[in-house]
Amino acid sequence: MFAPLIALLNTLIPIIAVVGAYLIAIHQEVAVACIPLWEGCTSISRAARYGDALFWFRGFMMPLSMLMVIYWIYQWHWLNELAGKRIRHHVILALSIISALALVLYANYLGSEGDFYRFMRRTGVIFYFSFAALAQLMTLQSLHSADRVFGPYVQRLLRVQFALVSAQWVIGLSSLWVNLAEPSWSFEGENVVEWNFGWAMVSFYAVSFWLWRALPPKALR
Prior knowledge:
Number of strands: 0
Oligomer: single chain
Strand content: under 5%
Helix content: over 70%
Mean pLDDT: 87
Order of helices and strands: HHHHHHH
Largest sheet: none
């Protein structure tokens, strides 16, 4: 089935892109080696900003943005089938498309120096993460309010997705606290937040792989 494969690629491609870029940067000695998920020695952007790592990262981000749009189009159809046609689903689709375009903006300006390019990168990454997280949250809200009884397996998968979305919002609030409090470890803290937020976000798509295998889009038509 094509739809589950799209969901899986939305998980695997960013992992391959980021981890691969970081390993290249370490090999070329433009990044410090650590376990960034809890040590926070570098951000995702810094790990993929210099040398060959930049070209590796960009090469994956452009097709990923297209796959994100395809994923959310499938999600839009799936939500309409399970919860009925709602304006909320159009909002989810719009948010996700803006998020995908923001990813292109971020990747395009990554590696460029100057205040304008820094502003464009920051704008891209903020819209990418925040709008995708909001689309994921609204998806679960729509399914929760659907007049439909899901089987135990699907319910477990939806609870996993809810935990991943909740983690994103908790991590986001932690980032806000770090920015306001500015502790001595704020640099590492912001990096840890970024890596874990990204991990929780792409894991949502991995769960969709199993959801769509159990209950494929267009199965109810």
